[in-house]
Amino acid sequence: MNQHVQVAEGDRLAKRNALVLSGAQALGGANPAIVVSLGGLVGAQLAADKTFATVPVSLLQLGIAAGVIPAAMLMRRFGRRGGYLIGALVGATGASLAAGGVASREFGLFCLGTFICGLYGAFVQSYRFAAADTASASFRPRAISWVMLGGLAAGIIGPQSVYWTRDLTPSAPFAASFLAQGALALLAICIVSQLHAPPVKTVRSDLGRPLGQIMRQPKFIASVIAALVAYGLMSFVMTAAPMAMVACGHSVGDAALGIQWHVLGMYGPSFFTGKLIERFGKEAVTITGLALTALAAIIGLTGLSVGHFWLALVLLGIGWNFGFIGATALVTDCYRPEERVKVQAANDFLVFGSVAIASFSSGGLLSHGGWETVNWLVFPPVALALLLVIWQRTQKRVGLA
């Protein structure tokens, strides 16, 4: 009976924190949406060599990867809430530098700004783990899903911020959009200040298993590869899509709306992803997400109309949602409470490092191989991830995992 009461109390706190973090996600999630919508287009205006046009978007992803471990260290030192407050200030700084780069037509300064925006993104990406920290095992998938649901609002806030602010500074197109991005980061401070996460305890280095031992678990390997494939391919295709649309004769507005539909596809399913995981299992939802990612590539290969681009981007977003949330839930089964900080940081470093590589390669492959090549390259990683997750599910059924 006492255990049941403790679980209820824990889930009450977890539900409150998940709602707070969902609100923070709605604002923080607009950060990458704005950079992805505009980074390649602004890069094409500022870069001397158009091959480097998507570098600002890639630097966003690199910033996320580079910021994972420092963010974890700050949260260990100052707690989740303190770390998130610092992260929001970093985000406002990065957006201001990006706006300054646009206004002064300095490609390097713009790239520095998007990289720092990525550092902010590292804090935002850990919101899902913060929601899981105080949740019971049964509520954990839904807690993660609730936080990701905040991205649904981000999918509207980010592109609409671009739409309403893009022409406010005629002499420096889109500079105001990045200033709006900074304002959203400052607004996030008001929300994350309401987080009631438990104090971060100093963990002795001799407690818990060595990180290498944890990372050698078959479930951890399958989970991380599924997450990095789901996220990496989403970034790979999404980075190239706006420029591919413009190259095919579609308008910048069509490209921005395509990203909006994509982000809605990314976060909209979070209304029910947690329940699907409870009903069908983490592996089944992850497998479905990977399959949808492959289907998006198939749609991308069948035509170049606005409808083909938008449908592919929506399917890509839904595939990311199922694949990434399912894989994240799988990762939470791989560590003990005293191991969570180092394992979460290692997971995100691996995932977002791969995402950064995918994003950097996207622009060059689009420039030299075209949209068709971008889509064909989706299939091998998806096949590998599917085999690993299916194998892990089989092992679990026979009691070997």
UniProtKB/TrEMBL annotation:
Query: What is the superkingdom listed in this entry's lineage?
Result: Bacteria
Q: Which Pfam families match?
A: MFS_1
Membrane-crossing ranges are 55-75, 82-101, 107-131, 143-162, 174-199, 220-247, 259-277, 284-304, 310-335, 347-367, 373-391
Q: Give the signal peptide as a residue range, or say none if absent.
A: none
The answer, when asked if Transmembrane is one of the entry's keywords, is yes
Keyword line:
Membrane, Transmembrane, Transmembrane helix
Give the matching InterPro entries: MFS, MFS_dom, MFS_trans_sf
Q: Where is the Major facilitator superfamily (MFS) profile domain?
A: 219-401
Q: Which one of the record's GO molecular function terms can you name? A: transmembrane transporter activity
| Keyword Cell membrane in annotation | no
Spell out the protein name for this chain: MFS transporter
Record organism: Bosea spartocytisi
